[in-house]
Amino acid sequence: MKKKFIINLALLIFINLLIKPFWFFGIEVSVQNRVGTENYGFYFSLFSFAFILNILLDAGINNYNNRTIARNHHLAESHLSRIIPLKFALAGIYALVVFTLGWIIGYSPDQFRLLWILVINQFLSSLILYFRTNISGLQYFTTDSLLSVLDRTLMILFTGLLLWGNVTSKPFRIEWFVYCQTVSYTITLIITLIILLSKTGKIKLLFNFGEGLKILKKSYPYALLILLMSLFNRIDSVMLERLLNDGQEQAGIYAQSFRILDATSQFALLFSVLLLPMFARMLKLKQEVNSLVNISVSLLMVAALTLAVTSNFYRGEFMSLLYHQSGPFTSKIFGLLMIDFIFISLSYIYGTLLTANGSLKALNILAGITVVINISLNLILIPRYKAIGAAWASVISQGFYATGQIFLSIRVIDLKMKYDLLFRLFLLTMLLIVLNVVGLTHINNWIPASLLSLAAGLVLAFVLRLIRIKEMVNILKEDSQS
Prior knowledge:
Helix content: over 70%
Structural class: mainly alpha
Order of helices and strands: HHHHHHHHHHHHHHHHHHH
Shape: globular
Strand content: under 5%
Distance between the termini: 10 Å
Number of domains: 2
Number of helices: 19
Number of strands: 0
Oligomer: single chain
């Protein structure tokens, strides 16, 4: 069973790495360049606002449902009958909260017109994710892997036609990008539902208020954690747009770098999917998890540190390559947010470990404190330093959250700090800095210099014994045999 799961996870990672980089570098960057920084900031701040409140659509149901169906396949039909009406009820609450808060903070009629479509898109996306939890819970991992990129594939097709297909003589508008998302989500939802019904048979929708409350009671700790994390991950662009006179432009500038951070973080996110069941089983069997944690830290930190160091040395060149409207201000934000990737990677390891251990109360308290820190810093730094102030607020907040998770893991799970690993990671960082300084001096073209830096990070990882393939393979074999 473990072998089957890991093979399908590898497929999931491969498909996502195949589709999502093209989605970001080919589509999102092109859309941003076509509509301009201010127009994209107009969209991005509204998207972030709708995304933060998305947890009202999920309410932790997806995690709860996935675990339940995986353990009891026969419950799939009854859960669908009860949860689908519940999801529609939650959609009504979500829409009411979004528009009420939008009215309170003073959104304009133009913003409300786009917000309506974004609310519909969030609901469609939430339903797709819920249906997919049933498919993966029923162990159809390959099907779920393909469905995971279907919406993005359709968006690439439809948005690509509007960008480069000469189907219209009018300039590309940000609203078209949102409409493409709506069409893509709708098609994906229909296909996902058809596949799911072929596995479960017909369902009869039943709304039971008492049953709905029971489901929400079981899922709310996960919902709260997701909400708090969404706040300190996404509130920056909303506050930029609201606090500044040129807020839409500043949100667009911030979005240029944030979207790159979001794209790179997908690697760590997918990796955490593998860690969660492994950590959960090892903790249940009271096996030590130190070795797996250390290997995970080694693998992700090699990638994060190499990318962060290289990105900061060539931040201006990279942003100029991607965007038509960029400058020193933009590149500084990019450099700071790539440091964020280090902390986010650590969070995906230690946060996954604490989640597998059931330490949700501690995680929620830590996330709540992080939200307070993030919002406070944004209120102080954004009026003074604009988008770069939001970037500093993000780095400090993510650093606090990741550090807190490490200390919680040491205290709650009795992890042992491996100081030689920390030293080797520090040594990797110093050597990368030295190599990049040398590269700047002796290599005129930044593209080969940056590629050599990335390759050097991988080579140094083997030299410093940060990557030990044999040890990782042995742990996977032991896990699959247990």
